[in-house]
């Protein structure tokens, strides 16, 4: 039986608010008439939503503009001083917390390197709480100004009746991380897979600005993708869409951390690239366990014409090109963005070969409209993405009255 698609009044209010606030956020300064034309909402609806947002002091007037023959139009913008947002990258080797204003201008950060012995959920919760305290003190911003906290993490973040995390590389199965954090933190918390968070940030603020259909690839210790279709994240039934790293690239191939074999991640994840290099060039392998440093060493050896390093990078480009061709055939994106810390490290060197192999494997028609480029947000991309998750929630949900009174500056007059 077909499900009813009838929207409730609450759904409509949320969607109108999201539409007005996001249009203003990315296009300010705008008048009410501009907002109506750009969002497709009626002038009366825009006027009502703006009245609510002005009352909440989320939007402010920024002067007026003469119009041809008519009354001057009042211009509006989002009040960037309204509050702050924390974006957290919960990585496999590190935890990074950044504080942003409402336009995602960075106000400061704290960064911890995590030993393998500290990868249990309660240890992450402790470190996040410690990091938040340190971040607030470092940036000298009152905790009351915090609108929300976003967290991007590896693995599947199941959005069901509760939010659970599955991260097989740490042995995490159905970990109720959000509930564990809520027991310690009073601010609203938003949580998603790091590649999805990064895709949101790149599409709003980075390489994907202005594109409606794109795929953002996260190459780190693990490998994932965030798929944006018609301007929004594609999630699938239980929010696991985009587990591109575990698509199969070699039958009965190398063992993967997910327990399967032949996954793309087992060839192009940072750990896999390093392992492949160690196998063919044990004598050239640098004496460090720092994955970033080892990848950097492989790149510099390749630039010195070292045949082993050149082969590893060529093979990596080959596997990536094939994986990207699969995405192009499946999703017909206008843009594919290569990012993540390992992507940043080797992307500039291998991009032309990745493009070459993708072209040779993808169908001609979708390939002809699909560009492949590098991410623009650099190391901040996941934290910005996590903060974007907060903005997404903030745009569509009015804050409860008690929080609003704490956050909003005193009204004058
Ligand atoms: Zn796998």
Describe, in plain words, how this protein is organized in 3D:
The protein is 44% helix and 21% strand. The chain has helices at 9-27, 32-39, 43-55, 121-139, 177-182, 194-205, 265-268, 270-280, 291-303, 307-331, 341-361, 364-369, 381-396, 401-407, and strands spanning 30-31, 59-65, 73-78, 84-90, 94-101, 106-113, 146-153, 156-159, 163-167, 172-175, 189-193, 214-219, 223-229, 232-233, 335-339, 371-374. Helix 1 crosses helix 3 (43-55) and helix 8 (270-280) crosses helix 9. It starts with 8 loop residues before the first helix and ends in a 6-residue tail after the last helix. Zinc ion binds next to loops.
Question: Notable features of this structure?
Answer:
alpha/beta; five-stranded mixed beta sheet; 16 strands; disordered C terminus; binds zinc ion
Counted beta strands = 16
**Ends apart, CA distance between termini:** 56 Å
Q: What profile does the largest beta sheet have?
A: 5 strands, mixed
Hetero groups bound?
Answer: zinc ion
Q: Largest beta sheet: what is the strand line-up? A: 6-5-4-7-11
Regarding quaternary structure, what we see is single chain
Count of separate DSSP helical elements: 14
**Beta-strand content estimate:** 15-25%
Q: What are the segments in which pLDDT stays under 50 over at least 5 consecutive residues?
A: 407-413
What is the string of SSEs from the N terminus onward?
HEHHEEEEEHEEEEHEHEEEHHHHEHHEHH
Principal-axes geometry comes out as: globular
- Cα-based radius of gyration, to the nearest Å: 23 Å
The overall pLDDT average reads: 90
Helix content: 40-55%
Structural class: alpha/beta
């Amino acid at each position: 039986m077909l499900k009813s698609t009838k929207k409730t009044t609450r759904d409509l209010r949320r969607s109108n608010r999201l539409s007005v606030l996001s249009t203003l956020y990315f296009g300010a300064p705008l008048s009410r008439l501009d907002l109506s034309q750009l969002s497709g909402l009626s002038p009366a609806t825009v006027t009502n939503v703006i009245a609510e947002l002005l009352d909440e002091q989320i939007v402010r007037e920024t002067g007026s503009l003469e119009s041809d023959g008519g009354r001057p139009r009042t211009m509006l913008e989002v009040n960037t001083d309204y509050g702050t947002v924390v974006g957290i990258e919960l990585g496999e080797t590190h935890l990074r917390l950044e504080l942003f204003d409402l336009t995602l201008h960075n106000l400061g950060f704290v960064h911890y390197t995590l030993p393998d012995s500290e990868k249990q959920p309660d240890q992450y919760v402790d470190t996040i709480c410690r990091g938040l305290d340190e971040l607030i003190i470092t940036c000298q911003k009152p905790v009351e100004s915090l609108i929300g906290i976003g967290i991007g993490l590896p693995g599947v973040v199941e959005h069901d009746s509760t939010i659970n995390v599955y991260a097989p590389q740490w042995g995490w199965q159905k970990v109720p991380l959000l509930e564990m954090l809520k027991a310690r933190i009073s601010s609203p918390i938003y949580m998603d897979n790091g590649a999805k968070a990064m895709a949101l940030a790149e599409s709003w603020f980075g390489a994907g600005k202005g594109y409606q259909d794109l795929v953002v690839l996260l190459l780190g210790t693990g490998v994932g993708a965030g798929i944006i279709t018609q301007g929004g994240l594609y999630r699938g039934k239980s929010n696991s869409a985009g587990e591109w790293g575990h698509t199969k690239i070699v039958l009965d191939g190398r063992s993967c951390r997910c327990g399967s074999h032949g996954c793309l991640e087992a060839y192009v994840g940072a750990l896999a690239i390093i392992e492949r290099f160690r196998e063919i060039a044990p004598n050239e392998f640098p004496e460090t366990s720092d994955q970033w440093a080892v990848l950097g060493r492989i790149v510099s050896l390749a630039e010195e014409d070292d045949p082993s390093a050149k082969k590893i990078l060529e093979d990596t480009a080959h596997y990536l090109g094939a994986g990207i061709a699969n995405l192009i055939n499946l999703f017909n994106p206008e843009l594919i963005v290569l990012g993540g810390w390992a992507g940043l490290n080797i992307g500039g060197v291998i991009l032309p070969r990745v493009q070459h192999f993708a072209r040779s494997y993808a169908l001609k028609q979708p390939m002809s409209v699909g560009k492949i480029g590098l991410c623009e947000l650099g190391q901040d991309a996941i934290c910005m993405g996590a903060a974007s998750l907060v903005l997404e929630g903030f745009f569509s949900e009015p804050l409860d009255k008690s929080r609003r009174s704490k956050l909003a500056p005193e009204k004058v007059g």
